[in-house]
Amino acid sequence: MNDIAPNLAALIGEVVGARLISHAGSLTNLAKCPSSTLQILGAEKALFRALKTRGNTPKYGLIFHSSFIGRASARNKGRMARYLANKCSIASRLDCFLDTSTTAYGEKLREQVEERLDFYDKGVAPRKNIDVMKSAIESVETKEDEPMATANGDSHEEPKSEKKEEEERKEETTR
After folding, report:
1. pTM to 2 decimals?
2. Is 148 exposed, middle or buried (0-12, 13-18, 19+ CB in 10 A)?
3. Residues 9-34 pLDDT 10s
4. Where are the domains of the chain?
């Protein structure tokens, strides 16, 4: 799951993320879904029964199995399902369309959902999405800027041929 959708797995968990991808058909199909569809994914039978009988439509489908919905109070379960569906939609789109595989965005989105739970319970205001995404982008960019370690661990050492050329240049300038 970490190879296919690392951000979605970091946000909602591997089991629920895999169920969402499986039910949608593919990660690309899941990324194409709006968050309102993602919210009730897995509850289609209940949705159409409610529409037919003019009853109440379901608030959640497969997302109900997430630990976030279970930790929310009964009054806030629908709100958390909607918020979590929004974040899952963002995570699936990032996983589908990003060139590099990283969990940084999923971890930041998970922090946002945790903050939203605290907001519903204690009233602590969560951070804005734009600020969280900027910090995620910065963390991804700093990870990319770090040099890759080679097999022998000499990541900062230049190849010997270049070193020899530099030494020869230094000797020529000192002469």
Report:
1. 0.75
2. exposed
3. 999 989 998 989 998 899 999 999 99
4. 6-148+155-174
